[in-house]
User: Fold this.
Amino acid sequence: METVVIINLAVMFIALYMFSFFIILNIRNRKDIFSYPIATKEYFVTVLIPAHNEEDNISDTIEHVMNLDYPKNKLEVIVLNDGSTDKTKEIILKCMKKYPNLKLLDKNNSGKADSLNQGIKMAKGELIAVVDSDSFPSQDSLKKLTGYFDEEVMGAVTSFVTVRNPNTNYLTKIQDIEYLLLAWTRKLFDFMNSVFVTNGPLSLYRKEYLIKIGGFDTKTVTEDIDVTWNLLSYGYKTAMCLDARVSTVVPDKLKKYYHQRVRWGVGGLQAISKYKKTFLKKGIFGMFVYPFVSFSIFMSFFVLFFSLYLTIKSFSENLVVTGFSVYSGASIIHYENINFYPSVLLFYLAILFISTIIYYNYILKKIKYHEKLKIRTFFNLIFYILIYLSAYLLIWLPSLYRYIKKDNRW
Amino acid sequence: MNQKSVFLQALIVAAAIFIIGILIGVYFENLRVASMQDTFYESETKINDFELSSKIIFQSNLSCDLIQQRSISFADQIYSEALILEKYDNSNQLTQRFMPLHKRYDLLRTILWKDIIDNKKVCKNRINTVVYLYQYSNPPLEIQGVQGAMSNYLGDLKNKYGDNITLIPIAADTGLDSLDSIRQIYNLTKVPVIFVNEKYKVEDINDLKQIDKYLSIKNS
Assistant:
């Protein structure tokens, strides 16, 4: 057997394993996907809203936070204005007139992580909720998250992020599908006590543990990944509630989207590097989360480079044959030479593709993406699986470059 | 709920699907080999029949047209089988059973070529033979380009002249002593090469257009 075939088969087996893993996890926990524990007490919660130049969304975000269905005497809201140069501060001050109990920490620009750390120092709450200034928690979301903290070891709980602007263009529509599928997968990780990202739009943390781990790391570009890994590495638990929704504004321009995803990529690589000593140590984090994420990123790179190699090889072969054929006056292609006989790899690809489409359809149906799945959604799913996910691998190249160059820009 | 068993369950499911896939793959590849083998046995019988009938025709002083007709039709059949064999060979990735079959087909084509050479001596050069010797195993990129262009050009030639030419593609690197001997006789040291009517060698794609001139085809 040729080396290329062996590599292809190995990749297929890994893909089959991952897919089977999620399916089995889903089947075993299908009744608990949307369930969440009801809190036995009312925790005092401080909501931190870090904001930097967010004049378009901050008012709406504050409005959503102030209208959370949570006892007002148990809720403190602090907006962290991180040196905004637009009208963010004025808008916050206006909101403070409407909501006198709203607090403002006005500071020079020092980054999101540092703003959050300063906010933690100010916070009175036993639990700290972080809400991005372009995100809008649903009324009942906070209540649904607090119940998890009845468990003493719980360090952080995250929510189900949906896209606020799915109909702006095709890019936001595809991100809408992506966010829904990611949320579902994250929930499956919850059943393994392995939620490895507590998202920025809405996550709840136990303040005591945040202080214990040193707060948010200011040196990383994705403080949400880092803080989750840090909590997990200390042995604290993380969870996810699929019934606590928060909507967020996603990039509608390719350039903004690209910068965001490269930053996420750099953050992932930074986390792998920072926590390498925990590999195969320290319970579920060292034994599963760290190896799983590292292996996934390694596989992304491997598949990317292997696909590039195969594409370049096939392209150059076809180019040379076409070039020589044109030069010699021969036809470029003959109908008799077109090969319709499938190989075993196509069998695996077909199995994986069909199963993934069926499974993703199932997820969208369960999440009630639409009451009835439209045919357009089906085609969007096909686009998402075949084009988007393949193209996404390319993001890893600039991410790796920026990581090596130690470029920590946002 | 203890979720640790998910790792093992997933492994069992993935392994089961993977093994089923391999078994199905091997089954289909074997089917292709079996189908090609059946075709080969038929062709093998035909070439024996062709050799014997050629002898009978010569001994009885029957028409050379009959030999020409039969050799062209047989060569056409082997040519179309070669195309299928090539596709099967590219699609079969688990088993390596096509390599020996490829070699046997190359032997069959060499026998056909030799028969046609012998027949030509008696029938005075009535058949146009275009023998294409190519590199089968891991040709470098440049050779792939040349072979691709040659293959495309010969395909065009076959479409253009149809029964007027006998096109015989043979892999030159499968270790056939008989083929090596013929190559020595005609000094065909370089591969790929197109050898027309046992006289004209075309080794360069610049010279492909010369092939038309080397063929003796009467305009009807």
